[in-house]
Prior knowledge:
The structure is a homodimer of 286-residue chains.
Chain A: E1 3-9, H1 13-24, E2 28-34, H2 38-46, E3 52-53, H3 57-63, E4 66-69, H4 76-83, E5 92-95, H5 101-111, E6 118-119, E7 121-123, E8 144-147, H6 155-167, E9 171-174, H7 177-203, H8 208-214, H9 217-222, H10 230-239, H11 241-263, H12 267-283
Parallel strand pairs in A: 1-2, 1-4, 2-3, 4-5, 5-6, 8-9
Antiparallel strand pairs in A: 7-8
Helix pairs in contact in A: 4-5, 7-11
Amino acid sequence: MHFGKVLIFGVGLIGASFARGLKAAKAADEIIGFGRTPKSLKAAYDLGIIDEVGINPGADVREADLILVATPVGQMPEIFQRIAPYLGAHTIVTDAGSTKGDVVEAARAAFGDKIGQFVPGHPIAGAETSGAAASRADLYQGRKVVLTPLLENAVEDIEKVKRAWELCGADVRILDAETHDRVFAAVSHLPHLLAYALVDEFARRPNADQLFDYAAAGFRDFTRIAASHPEMWRDISLANRTALLAELDRYGAALMRIRQALVNSDGEALASIYANARDARQNWSH
Amino acid sequence: MHFGKVLIFGVGLIGASFARGLKAAKAADEIIGFGRTPKSLKAAYDLGIIDEVGINPGADVREADLILVATPVGQMPEIFQRIAPYLGAHTIVTDAGSTKGDVVEAARAAFGDKIGQFVPGHPIAGAETSGAAASRADLYQGRKVVLTPLLENAVEDIEKVKRAWELCGADVRILDAETHDRVFAAVSHLPHLLAYALVDEFARRPNADQLFDYAAAGFRDFTRIAASHPEMWRDISLANRTALLAELDRYGAALMRIRQALVNSDGEALASIYANARDARQNWSH
């Protein structure tokens, strides 16, 4: 598998690592970066991550074999609208959004008849670090990338996107968009919301300094994801709000069961919940 | 500061690391270990962590300069009752319990007139690893140890316990027991409960395997503490249930505010909470 011209919209950690992965595999002739801030594009260019800083996407989109949109999901609708008129007959568009239902909806609205050229994707490689400078050619090595293909996609186009990620070292999985959004609401979006809620709540208290002073290793790991990008997680929360609300309510019910055990001083119920969690967590190897 | 005979009840990670720290500082003549399981005491003896496996505490307690009770808090009342009749006039007892209100209450019940000889303490050095084999002489290096002295304590006795921990490398702080329990309900006990609740809830679902399959680094760190010892955390939850319930309700209210923002698709409110948490978490250096 080889790509001629590859366009990347949003040359942050995710987009830049994809570029580096393809370059390391010698799988692309030319990689052009687009983004909102000329300064960070220039930095990516200076680091050799992209071959060119894109200015006006028209001609480049027409000639592109592959376009990755790797911005926060909130910016994707506008980018899809912007590139839709220029898509070449052979151009495949994919994305790196953490939610898929909303991205597919925006893609349908923008691409219309050409929706078959859009293969939705989600690389599972978030980090609190961000920006092209933090990117690595091996970021996707052994990481999962989920594709949520559309009925309109040609099998060979899905295969091309799959191969592009595999060239970056990824383990590519296929899910439908709805299942994707439900699974990630549970295992990723909810934990972020829970960690943000805890740290925000502590930070607003009069004795916040005292609390943070005595917080130790358990707190450190539990709240690591609360250092994630607020704008990105606002977008994800809104984009996947239906599934996220369902997860939040389910979790709230679980907390109420523990609360009841505490109120009743029911040590057996607590120990049973804790032991079940401990066993599951220990059996889960990442 | 030098101690003659030191007794340690519960030679697990915490007790054994204290023994190793004192030995490394050449601050004790003899360290005797007591515990429920002869096998693990024998192992601690074989590793050179204790000088003797204690059998009948009577005579040893009478001669001891310092006694550390480092069992789960649920076992402390019985141990206090067992040693109370034998306390020498110069013997100081301290503990390593994660909660202080309940431990002090149990100590008052057991020691009666001799309560002044009990200086309550809490080393902040939990870990998912446990057992004497995981212990280290430098476990307390740079870690906080909180003492919550009683009005009945002699200043020089508080000072002796403080020095013992400092010889292990710890940064010793003083709090009253109630403040201690409120602070640790927030920064330690609540996060454990929240992590246990999440993993238990996932593990009970029909699609648990799928969820754990797609869980990634964020989930890994968020739930690391759910691998902690269920019996120990049941004891802590019950011992500190009043403060823990207050924290849980406060957190529930915070979740309800986020829920409302999600229901209203209020991106501004979400971004403000997330950004406040991100700033606080980034400013917190551990």
